[in-house]
Fold this sequence. Notes:
Restriction endonuclease type IV Mrr domain-containing protein, 53% helix, Restrct_endonuc-II-like, five-stranded mixed sheet, Trna Endonuclease, Chain: A, domain 1, single chain, Type_IV_Methyl-Rstrct_Enzyme
Amino acid sequence: MSGRSPTATRLFWTVVLGGCAVLRYGAPAFAATAAACFAILLHRLDRPRRFRSLVRRIARRHAATLALRRRQECFVDAYGNTIEDGWLRERAYFVERTVLPIIEERGFADYVEPHFDAMEAIVERVACAHPLPDEIDTPEDGVAYERYCAERLGEAGWDARPTGASGDQGCDVIAEKAGVRLVVQCKRYTRPVGNAAVQEVAAAALHWSGDMAAVVSNAGFTPAARKLAGTTGVILLHHDDLSTLAPTRRAGRRVMTAGR
């Protein structure tokens, strides 16, 4: 029996046990056995709907974050093309790390590989359907964008100031709160920010005696930048995250987290 599907196994034992009951109780047992087999088959046929419903419920629990990340990771490049690479990576990451463990736990492990695209499509629809506040227009000019980022940090209670165009050593904004100094590099780009910015702000944090370092951008980050940030401890943020950025202390060292 080990090679059979759960549905086939249930049907087999239902028929076997039901057949024994029929020999003893006759027609009533036959009717009960037939009804049980029909219920098992109906449950099997309804499995795709239950799978889609489960994925949808999981995605809806994170709808606000998914919608925001979709907006943050999609941008228009200098040629007018909509670039969604960052969002596609984020969507796949959400499915792999958040959806799949629950799907497998609920008995849909056999759906993972053949229905991965379907899960991504459900997540996409949930993210698109969730309403978000109107996006604030950000300055096109780099220096103005630095001032804009400093203002957003101020909304979160930071004492923030731009460093100016000259002699910044890779630091565009210095911010302090609760004894934590944050060194920020701001990138108003039409393409994802690469790992050079991560290297620069990591060095700037040493130069400015910063407790933490961050790169802020409107256009997302390349996989190489994300990997290097994970190694160096640099935080990668969208400017939407700045107004809720708060210093926290964890395991005896200073880290920064973006509140939602």
